[in-house]
């Protein structure tokens, strides 16, 4: 009994058991099964990383679309500004010639 109690105290097993109990309680409401390793590291990593990477790729694509739209609007604005500058230069030249 003393050795068992000593092992419990040294390994902080009481705290570990209580955290394990908490994890089990939280998992009761889950509908999907818990993740279990298959024994093949490549498949384990793939099963975990692929959904994350697909979600990340989708997010990056939406950010890219937003930035492309923003850049398109800025490019239109720049072209409109250039057209306005060209019109004003023509107007200035016309008034300058009329003045002379």
Key features of this structure:
100 residues, mainly alpha
What do you see in this structure?
This protein is an all-alpha fold. Among the domains are: 1-32; 69-99. It is 83% helix and 0% strand. It has three helices and no strands. The longest helix is centred in the C-terminal third of the chain and has 59 residues, at 41-99. It is found in: Chromosome, Centromere, Kinetochore; Nucleus. Keywords: Cell cycle, Cell division, Centromere, Chromosome, Kinetochore, Mitosis, Nucleus. This is PMF1 factor. InterPro entries: PMF1/Nnf1 (IPR007128).
Structure, briefly:
The protein has 100 residues and is mainly α. It has three helices and no strands.
The secondary-structure element order is: HHH
Estimate the global geometry from the Cα principal axes: rod-shaped
Report on the biggest sheet: none
- Structural class given helices, strands, pairing? mainly alpha
Radius of gyration from the alpha-carbon trace, in angstroms: 34 Å
Helix content bin: over 70%
Q: How many beta-strand runs? A: 0
Measured by DSSP, the beta-strand proportion falls in under 5%
Low-pLDDT parts are: none
Please count the helical segments: 3
Instruction: State the oligomer.
Output: single chain
pLDDT averaged residue by residue:
88
Terminal Cα separation, in Å?
Answer: 113 Å
Subcellular location: Chromosome, Centromere, Kinetochore; Nucleus
Protein name: PMF1 factor
Organism: Oxylabes madagascariensis
GO biological process, one term: cell division
